[in-house]
Design goal:
Elements lengths: L10 E9 L4 E8 L5 E7 L3 E3 L5 E3 L2 H11 L7 H17 L4 E3 H15 L1 H11 L5 H13 L21
Parallel strand pairs: 4-6
Antiparallel strand pairs: 1-2, 2-3, 4-5
Helix pairs in contact: 1-2, 1-4, 2-3, 3-4, 4-5
Length: 167
């Protein structure tokens, strides 16, 4: 690691801490030549292999753009989309692979999107899985109906936790 002040190559780590929920490591370093301190941030790279064979860094923004299109006109908040993109990235990083096929990114989007909004899920799946006929949509809808409802719990009224009062 080069010192950003004097460009010396002899630096030592003084302190290391996890940052961004463990996704990065923040290191405090000290230059042996000039004595100045500086901070570096290290993160594991996650590369996406596209159909063409080209690799590029994983981008939450690209996930957000695709999901936002599927959710257009739906009652989905931007915070929910950001959380979905974070979940997708965490799922992909949990695989332990440095390079992920773009198909795997799409698969990682499908389940959280289904939980968020089934109509948006169908829109995304129709593009991702190349639906060509009405039968493709019908089959996807039947699969949704066949699976047990795993939607997030509905908000509970504050009174529901209270024991019932008997008079």
């Amino acid at each position: 690691m080069h010192c950003p002040f004097c460009r010396a190559t002899d630096t030592r780590v003084v302190d290391s801490r996890l940052a961004e929920e463990g996704a990065t490591i923040r290191r405090r370093r000290c230059c042996s030549d000039c004595g100045r301190r500086f901070t570096t941030i290290e993160s594991a790279g996650l590369q996406v292999i596209k159909r063409s064979g080209v690799t590029e860094p994983f981008s939450r923004t690209k996930v957000l753009v695709g999901v936002r299109k599927a959710c257009q006109g739906r009652p989905v908040h931007e915070d929910d989309l950001a959380l979905l993109a974070q979940q997708v990235e965490e799922t992909l990083r949990a695989s332990g692979q440095a390079e992920i096929d773009s198909h795997e990114v799409g698969l990682a989007v499908l389940e959280p999107l289904r939980l968020l909004d089934e109509v948006a899920y169908l829109r995304f799946a129709s593009v991702y899985r190349n639906f060509e006929t009405l039968d493709d949509f019908c089959a996807a809808i039947e699969l949704l109906r066949a699976e047990p409802d795993v939607s997030p719990p509905s908000p509970v009224s504050p009174d529901s936790d209270l024991p019932s009062r008997q008079s």
